[in-house]
Amino acid sequence: MAQKKIMCLSLGGSIISRDTGVNVEYSKKLSGLIDHFRDKCKFIIVVGGGYASRLYIQSTKNIIENNSLLDQVGIAFTRINALILKDLLGNLSVYPNVITSLEELKNSLSMNDIVVLGGLLPGISTDAVSVLACEVTNSKLLINVSSTSYVYDKPPSEEGARKLKSLTHEQLVELAYKYDQREAGSHFILDLVASKLAKRSKIEIRFVDDNIENLYAAIEGREHNGTTVK
Fold first, then answer.
1. How far is CA 164 from CA 65, 170, 228, in A?
2. CA gap 113, 126 in Å, rounded
3. Can you identify the CATH homologous superfamily of domain 5-229?
4. Where along the chain do its domains lie?
5. How many helices (H) and strands (E) does the chain have?
6. How far apart are CA 118 and CA 126, in angstroms?
7. In contact, 77 and 17? CB cutoff 8 Å
8. Cβ–Cβ contacts within 10 Å for residue 200, how many?
9. Are 143 and 9 a contacting pair, CB within 8 Å?
10. What is the bridge-based pairing of β-strands 204-208 and 228-229?
11. Would you write out the chain's pLDDT as a tens digit for each of its 230 residues?
12. Contact (CB, 8 A) for 78 and 47
């Protein structure tokens, strides 16, 4: 039997955690997608904090001045989201615990088709964790799923911002230098640490939105909405 390809998904918290609660509909679609590819792929799913995380971080910034503590609040919410998603994927071959270290990730993936994790360390985003997950498992492809599928040449809220269909790693790092604020709860489509890690290991990144068909296409290497970095 051919060895299964390792597929790493960085699942933006906004996809799972919204102001209306858990996005169960998307989780069910994701379960169907993983079931479709399970004979060919193993999946690492790294889940962000989303709405609940941002709500708590923003509301406590004025009383908690310790950035490391704010990061830990964010990490706690990523792990809650990971726990919920893991349970929603429970009918598949999922590792029974939310991963809390890269060593556990590597060991668990050898025996399971799916592992789910959130954040690991203060100051390190779930996007950066996703790239580290690629590195320790020798995967050269990361698919980033978020509310927007494109990298822009400047913040998309600014007038004249342009979608970028393809980028080099050097160009992505340059944009991250400009727009990654390095604050708990802030967001650039891929932060500076993650961008530099992807560059050093030559990990291709495919960005997609929450349209599940784009995720199917990105996994299969077909045309999809979103930016590709390589």
1. 36, 14, 9
2. 20
3. Acetylglutamate kinase-like (3.40.1160.10)
4. 5-229
5. 9, 11
6. 6
7. yes
8. 11
9. yes
10. antiparallel
11. 578 999 999 999 889 888 788 888 999 999 999 999 989 999 999 999 988 888 888 888 888 878 888 889 899 999 999 999 999 887 888 999 999 999 999 999 989 999 999 999 998 999 999 999 999 999 999 999 998 889 998 888 888 889 999 999 999 999 998 887 655 444 568 889 999 999 999 999 999 999 999 999 999 999 999 999 99
12. yes
Q: Which pair of structure tokens corresponds to residue 107?
A: 């060991």
Of residues 132, 155, 130, 152, the one with CA closest to residue 143: 130
Gyration radius of the chain's alpha carbons:
17
Among 157, 161, 173, 163, residue whose Cα is nearest residue 209: 163
Q: Tokens 């906004």 correspond to what residue?
A: 14
For the entire predicted model, the pTM comes to: 0.92
What DSSP designation does 2 have?
P
DSSP 126: H
| Order of strands, sheet of 141-145, starting from the edge strand that comes earlier in the sequence | 114-117, 41-47, 5-11, 141-145, 204-208, 228-229, 166-167
Quickly tell me which residue has 């790294």 as its tokens: 46
Helices (H), the chain: 13-16, 24-37, 50-60, 67-88, 102-109, 126-137, 169-179, 192-201, 212-220
Which pairing describes strands 41-47 and 5-11: parallel, antiparallel, or unpaired? parallel
Phi-psi category of 112—alpha, beta or left, where left has phi over 0 and alpha has psi -120 to 50? beta
